[in-house]
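Backbone geometry:
***
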Amino acid sequence: PTYPISPLQRSMSSEFPSPQSLSTLKSANAFLSTCNRSSFTTSDGLPLSTLLHTPPNPNKETVLFLTGWNESYVKYWDVIRALGGEGYTVLTFDHRSQGFSGRTVEPHDMSHVEDFERYVKDALEVLEERVFKVGEGTRKISIVGHSMGGLISLLVSERLGVERVNSVSTVAPMICFKTPPFPWKIAGVLGKVLPAIGLGEQYTVGFPKDNWEPSLMNWPLKCTHSVERAGCWVRQQAEAPIISLAGPSNTWVASAWNACDEFMEKYCGSKGSKYPVPWIMIRPTDDRFVHCESQDLFALTQKGGGRIVKVEGAYHEVLIESDEIREKVLGEIFNFVKVHISTKGLAVPASLYTEVAIKPFIPEVPTFEVRRMEKNEPKGMGRDDTVMKVGMIVAAAAAAAAAVGGDGIFEGKEDITK
């Protein structure tokens, strides 16, 4: 679909302190041109942009790759290429309200979903049409997901079970995301209050922001040590501004919060259920977006039901990290996927169900200036920053703070942060 480009999206600059990122962008575009990009229409009528990569010598196995929030599959071109290098056919798509896929509300640079379950349904529908109805008999797949895509991967795998899924590999999965400036429980209360007072289809607190993602390279919200790969992603957004988001809606935050809380309630803590599909979890130790403790708690609860890999010093964007980090992480994922394909996901060597640590060399990341919006450019589309609405948010926050006692993120779920 074609949407108007907002001033916030136009503010995305291709200027980046890494000449190599321009060369990387050319390589990305060359590879993506060899893939089959098409559109898939969901059951509720929304077009999703899909990409299928079939390697020269496919091994008849398919991997579904799911991106994170505010991302597009073009960002992970070299991950898709690497999976293809292992012989896998790779299917991926842009989630609704981001990337090249359709939007459901205005402004079009705002991420929005009424219910997180819709992400799961989208993935199941794409799989049914593009994989399970194609080929011979019952087909099994492997799933790889990053961040928000990691949580969606876990939910999709849970739904399909080992009858359809060999294994699920998650990278910095969004089991519990950080909610500054509010503690987790207060963010949950706000998530219910703000949509209830008519602010559901408005940017959440602190957004919209112009050119905000490249700013995250700088302290305190660093995302990767690879300026070259981050620079390529920034240049991709400058080439196709529609894939750049200015922030999430309040309803998105509420639906994502509910999905995380329900998942933790079901699979984390002393009363957690057994997760049904073999899993591997890549856990960066310096993640500014997701609570690593939630991944630890999941692994402890499952007691050997999968493999957690702690990557010392890595930031959230593990799949576009420095070569030293990325190559070791991909090696762990590829090995796990390969083993579970060979065993059909039912029997695995006990040695795989362990905790391992990667301690790579961490390069220094230079700081830099990013272009900001001009003062005469509008601060977003479709947002009415009135005193009344600001007052509503402050009042809601105050009410939430009064209603919630402790600030413990994992209170009641075996807080292992102590």
